[in-house]
Amino acid sequence: MITALHYIAMSALLLGLYAGEISWAEGACSVESTNAHEFTSKQLASRATTKPKPEIPAGFGRIDATISINVLVDADGKVVCAHGDLQAQPILRGYCEQAARKWVFKPFVVNGKPAMVHGPIIFHVKR
């Protein structure tokens, strides 16, 4: 059942999409054009200094989901791009993508130099 709150949330996400703030397309965080090194979700989480959780409105209803968000992190430890699994529920995926963009990491060092990295952030959302 879709409530008025769902319509408001979807409208806000679509406004972000049209403003270029939210990427929905597969491959939106293409790492092929970068020299980013791949890290696992555990490796990323261990280097995170700020890990905000998705802010999901109370009216969203019962949730029990695991959402994977692929992120591209620059050499300074800031998320420059985040996109979720397209099979995940779109509104829930959008909230998780927004949270992932706010994560901050200690800079990753590869071969003695700060490096751009990519990998998944896993959100377990339940209530």
Which SSEs are present, and which pair or pack?
Layout lengths: L3 H15 L18 E2 L2 H7 E3 L13 E10 L5 E6 L5 H12 L2 E2 L2 E3 L2 E3 L1 E10 L1
Parallel strand pairs: 1-8
Antiparallel strand pairs: 2-5, 3-4, 3-8, 6-7
Descriptive report:
The structure is a single chain. It is built from three helices and eight strands. The longest helix has 15 residues, at 4-18. Helix content is 27%, strand content 31%. It is an alpha+beta fold and 127 residues long. The model is unreliable at 1-27 (pLDDT under 50). A hairpin with a 2-residue loop joins β6 (108-110) and β7. The chain has a single domain, classed as TonB (TolA/TonB C-terminal domain), CATH 3.30.2420. Strands 1-8-3-4 form a four-stranded mixed β-sheet. Strands 2-5 form a two-stranded antiparallel ribbon. The chain is elongated.
What's a concise summary of this model?
This protein has 127 residues and is an alpha+beta fold.
CATH superfamily: TonB
Largest sheet: 4 strands, mixed
Can you write the helix and strand succession as a string? HEHEEEHEEEE
What percent strand? 25-35%
Q: CATH first level: which class?
A: Alpha Beta
The order of strands across the largest sheet is: 1-8-3-4
Helical run tally: 3
List keywords for this structure.
3 helices; TolA/TonB C-terminal domain; 127 residues; disordered N terminus; two-stranded antiparallel ribbon; alpha+beta
